[in-house]
């Protein structure tokens, strides 16, 4: 039995910290998922990758199947954040953010920290910087 916690601390902490700004944005926008949900999603996906390391150490296909399952699960969770109203759909940005947060956790779990950082940064920039452009599209920012 291997109880070396230190090798898992950095990826788990990175996943958690990189998801916080995304959760903060969704919280400030008063969306269905926010400051608690996003770090937990990243932590869970990272943890699942790490928990299966011994099972998949010499089998890239096995790891690919685990990642495929996580991607599918994140799509399912994200689908729950989307609401269809009379003539509009809400929650698509939150759903997409949940999906990318799962990817951040996976990237941190396989220690691709450069990918995790880029995913987090581009998601945060997209959510914050592109929001004002919604005014020019003729759609209400509350619709996302």
UniProtKB/TrEMBL annotation:
It comes from the Bacteria. It holds the Pfam family MgtC. The chain crosses the membrane at residues 33-51, 63-83, 103-130. Keywords: Cell inner membrane, Cell membrane, Membrane, Transmembrane, Transmembrane helix. Residues 12-135 form the MgtC/SapB/SrpB/YhiD N-terminal domain. It is found in: Cell inner membrane; Cell membrane. Its main location: membrane. This is Protein MgtC.
